Structure formats: C-alpha cells, structure tokens
Give the backbone structure.
Amino acid sequence: MSSSEINKNEVDIVIGALNADLTQFLNSWRPFFSGFHLIIVKDPELKDDLNIPEGFDVDVYSKPDIEKVVGAANAAMFSGYSCRYFGYLVSKKKYIVSIDDDCVPAKDPKGVLVDAVSQHVSNLENPATPLFFNTLYDPYCEGADFVRGYPFSLRSGVPCAASCGLWLNLADLDAPTQALKTEQRNTSYVDAVMTVPLKAMLPISGINIAFNRELVGPALVPALRIAGEGKVRWETLEDVWCGMCLKHISDHLGYGVKTGLPYVWRNERGDAVESLRKKWEGMKLMEKSVPFFEALKLPESAVNVEDCVVELAKAVKEQLGSDDPAFTQAADAMVKWVQLWNSVNSSG
Amino acid sequence: MVEPANTVGIPLNHAALLKDELDIVIPTIRNLDFLEMWRPFLQPYHLIIVQDGDPSKTIAVPEGFDYELYNRNDINRILGPKASCISFKDSACRCFGYMVSKKKYIFTIDDDCFVAKDPSGKAVNALEQHIKNLLCPSSPLFFNTLYDPYREGADFVRGYPFSLREGVSTAVSHGLWLNIPDYDAPTQLVKPKERNTRYVDAVMTIPKGTLFPMCGMNLAFDRELIGPAMYFGLMGDGQPIGRYDDMWAGWCVKVICDHLGLGVKTGLPYIYHSKASNPFVNLKKEYKGIFWQEDIIPFFQSAKLSKEAVTVQQCYIELSKMVKEKLSAIDPYFDKLADAMVTWIEAWDELNPATKA
C-alpha cells in the first residue's frame, strides 16, 4: 500500500521524546512522516528543551501540558517511556503509529528504505485471522492467499487492533540476553506479516507499534512500572504488560493482533551490562503474569474496551496484588487511565 | 518468476545428519525422476517408496538410492484385513510407509517437488533444515516475535518468560513451497496464475491451542514422538473425499501434540513445487470437504482429551471415539473413518510392538 493510498487524516504519529535532540530522528523519518500530523510528548523528567527540525506538522506536549489535562497527581503515569501514552490520550485520530526515538528507517533486502508508517496502516486496515493459522502468513497481501484446508467461513477475518513491528540491528532483547551476546545484531529480514493466534500470549514491544485507537485505545494501558524503571528499554516492562492486556482484551472482543513487518533500524543506546547491575524486577513480574493471563477469563458482560480494562484491573488486584505492590499500582493505574480516557475523550 | 535450483555439482555429504535414524517416505504412481535433483541431499538416506495404483507397473528408482518399495499387493499381504485403513488411488497411502519404518524420524515429500533456491541463489537442503527444526525445541506456550529463538542469530525477546525458554520437544516440522502454492480448488480456479515467490526466512512454533492446515508435500516428524497420529485417513478410491488426508492428520496431530506438550513448527524449509494439479479434478475431490470442514474445525477446536490419555495411541483412540460420536451425524463417512482410525492403531501396534513404556 503506497502512502498515497492512506488517508493521512486518519493517522497520528506519536513520539515519546526521551532524548531532547530529535533532529536526526525526525530528519531520517521525514520522507515517511511528512504529510502526517505528529504528536510529540516530552518525558516530564527530561530537563532540556526539545530540538525539533522545521517542516513537520507537530503538536508538542510537555510536563505543564500533561499536568493541565490530567492533573498534577496523575502526571507521574506519563513519565519515562510512558510519556507517549499521553499522546494516545489526546489524539483525535483513528490510527496511531508510535516509534521509539532511537530508531530510524530500515532497508529491505533490495536496499529500499522501509515505509514503516504505510506498512503499519496497511496492517491495521486489513483483517486479521486469529482463529486459524495460515501457513502462507498474511492471506490478504499481494501474491498470497489462504491455503488448502483453511475453513471458508473464517476467510473474512476480524478487525485488526494492533500491528507490532520488528527491529533490525539492535533487536528488542532483554538485558541478560544482550549482555551475554554483546555482538549479536539482528540481520534477518523476515518478509511476512501474520496474525498472532487467539489465546496465544506474546511480548509486545512498544519500540515500533501501531494500533486502531478507535477500536482499542483504552486498552493501551500505561500501568506497570518496575522498581527503578529507567530510560532504556532494558529497564522497563511497561509495554510488555500493556501488550499482555491488549492481547487478552482483543481476544475477548474478537479483534486481531498482527506481528512481523514493518522493520525499523534500532540504534545503540545504553549498556546491557549496566542495566544488569540493577536488580531485574521485570523477570519476576513476568513469571507471575503469565499464569495469571493464561487462566484469566473476562466476564461475558464486559462488552466494550473500557469495561474490559476495569475488569482486568480488578482481577489483577485480586489475584496478583498480594504478590507484588507493582501489580496493585498497575491495577490502580489501569482504572485511573480509563477514567482519564473517558473524561478527555468525551469533552469536545 | 521463481525457479528451482540446479544441483549439478553439489557434492554428496557422507556425514549427513541422522542418516541412520531417518527414513524418507515417498508416495508415487508415476516415476521417481525427481530424485535425480535431490541426489546430493537425499542419497545418504534410506527410502521407503509406497507405490499407489496399479501394482503390476514397475517404478524405476534412480541408481544409487537405498530403498524398499511397497505396492498394493505388499500392503494387502502385510496388513491382511487391516489393509482396509490404507487409502488406494490417493497419496494418503504414504502413511503405510510411516507404519513400516523402523527409524526415529520421517521425511515425506511429493514426487513433483524439486530443490528450491534461497534468495542468494543457493540450493536449499530441505532435509537438513527439517532435521535442525526437529532437533531443537519448540516454544508453543508463548509466542516469540523474533520467531524461532534457537536459530543462529535469533533469541528470545524482552518480556519472554525465562521459565519457558527451555521449550518442549519438537514433534513436527512443516515446510513450505515456492512456485505452485498449496491452494484449494476454488482458489486455484480463481487465481490459476498465482505463484508463491515470497521466501519468508523464518521457522516458528504454532502456538498451543491453534489449529493449522498441515500439508504433506514437505513434512518431517519424529516418528517415536507422534508417529501413530500421522494417519492420513480414508481417501481416494471408493471414498467420498480426497485432498484432505494431510489436513485430517494435521488436525489430529496438533490436538494430540497440544495435549502431550509437544511442539509443531512451520516455515523453512522451502521446496520448489513444480506441478499444479487439475483444479476441476481437485474440486470434485474436495467438494464435500469444503462443507464438512466447517463442522470438523469446531470439533477439533473443542476436542478435549482425558488426563488418562498419556500415549499417542491412547489419545488417538480417544479421538476416534469422539469422531464417531460427534461427526457421524454429518455423514456416515466419519463412522467408517473412526473405525479406520482404530484399525490403523491396531496395525501400527502390531508392526511396532512396544519396546519402551
């Protein structure tokens, strides 16, 4: 799908600025961001002023703006990597594309720069197929189709809620893995988009992601903060938790989540070994989360996204709250998030 | 436009992986000329050829291959009355080869499948990739977004639970096809010129609880782990349905693998599929299947095996009872099929007396 076919008015590109100087980042994305509206949210803890090159249609939000909308008490929800969620909150568009500020466009095997925005929107606009696995991957793309044995009644698919992209160069590995394999870089360009099947859990990375805000916006919850959460991805789990919630809610409501293309090129930042020195809370929390989500059944009465988030938060508090205060905080944040979502999105 | 690889000049690998532990099962009705192209990769291995159709015809096997060949007379002689479970005039008969094999692993390939080229132009040693897939674990309990984490250059991503990183044993390796894709008849009729030119450089585990269409053209499995479930059903001569043999096996296999904690992989390797079968002939064969699968799929999706079913045979017999109970109402064919599933297990156990608990 070329960018001329996308209705650019339906898309917001939301960037969480953890670095003050966005010149290189935005200039490298210029061919693919131009014509789109950008929302840049500055990490409230970042002291320096943002440096944004000319020529973009952009709205910038920083700490005072965040406090004005959500109140000072709630502003902490949007610090660090979670600042981008504020952008999700105030956007008025149908689709959101979000990329970390240390990523630039990747090249495909032919050497052509990948238009990640177009690919994400195309993924979101085409149905997902979570109910049965197609061995030729995305059946809706050019040159492919459903294979023999794929039930016909399932071929119209379901709405796609999210598109999870991947990373060349520095893949989204955790600190222990990257520290062990310091030289490892991802050079494998897997030319496929596929739907993650119903009930299958996966770690959704926030580094390169897009979603249908109209469909599932409130499910993108800025909730789980690990103790000592830092400014490199190795020191966070907020997106992985958000993704577990999003997938579960999507499964419950009959939506699909895709993974695969597009790739972005992720640059070096931070030191995996340094990150290892911090006690790796994330590992423990994930171990507890998995059986919880596996057994979780949202009630039939939860028929919209907000209800699902609230029910999920209740279950988190009840079943995981005693395991770790991080879960209780996450549950409270999820409830607060839905309240904020409703109040921001009903006015005006 | 994609082309098969030219394998002339590729040296034979005498240290081929698992050459004494793997049998290659090939169903054929015409000839085995295609093996010439596969020689560098397949000659070290033992072949089991299942000759379908007229048993009086002689199938020429290229020089230098070590093989055993079974025609319909052999099948009838070896199985006696139980031979009724083996299809006639359909490549489903290949499962007889699985039953008579004495090896741990099976690779099965169709006689119109040639060697593919990877994007760099190199000939793909499909069997070698299948073996790699089978020898390293699967990860069905949590999806890894970078696909097979055990492959060179890949790993588990951030957030992947550490307790699940050991994976489970791999029972099946399902390969794909360049050139003629494995489409059903309606799709072939609508898109007669479509060719698969996309080389997706990934192997992945199909998550637990997810069904898939298993194609028998380019397939390998651990016979010791899942062999008895690889029954390719009643197809062909005298049967109301065809081209659902591998599909049926795949659904049974996946339900049982999920129950027993085994993994199923799909993706690499690719082979080059050269022949498109006649879509009108296919439509006649598949016709009933297209309707029936609408009921069959929910059946498999909701099939629950009991805690007491701990061997593949036990699981399979339980499944056969469920088929009889729940699918016979669709068509008496399923009643026959359920019986054939039991006969298959009886025959399997007779030919493969238990040597381990």
Summary: The beta strands of chain A are 11-17, 37-42, 57-61, 95-99, 103-105, 160-169, 193-195, 208-212, 256-266. Residues 325-346 of chain A form the longest helix (22 residues). The mean pLDDT of chain A is 93. The CA atoms of residues 298 and 311 of chain A lie 7 Å apart.
